[in-house]
Amino acid sequence: MQVTLQLTFLASHAYEMLHAITVTLVRLAITRVRMLEWETAAASAHRGGAPRVAVFITEMMASPLVAAAGAAIVLAIRPHAFVAAAPVLALWLAAPLVAYALSRPVPTRRAVLAPDDHAFLKARRARPGRTSRPSRAKTITRCRRTTSSSCRS
User: Fold this and answer.
1) Residue 120 in 3-state DSSP?
2) At 129, is the secondary structure helix, strand, or coil?
3) Residue 108, helix vs strand vs coil
4) Prediction pTM value
5) Closest CA to 99 of 34, 1, 3, 12
6) Residue 127, CB half-sphere, CA atoms under 13 Å: how many?
């Protein structure tokens, strides 16, 4: 699954890296302005609000464009290779929708307890100090009083 997702987002990530490199080189070599400009992921998420499909399509437009250009190039140069390229091109075309689907919040589920489990937990809560094994403090105190070999680590 992870490899499929990496392949799905490959075109978008490649565009983002190429854009970042280009902006950095232009700022270093030509404009020399806004050299220390960045935005944290938290600030970006706060600014964006709830996930919307239109935002993902706009932000990841490079992926479908690369898929369309790749399809055109494959069809122009080697049309018989389109069958092999189609799955990857389809993933790139669908990348914004996949990203949107993955970014949606997961609905919370409440576990429904069986009556036996509910009664067990209720009885357990009524006796808070009872545990099945002695506490570490009791074990240390007992070991100081005795020279038992079971107390040595």
Assistant:
1) helix
2) coil
3) coil
4) 0.64
5) 12
6) 8
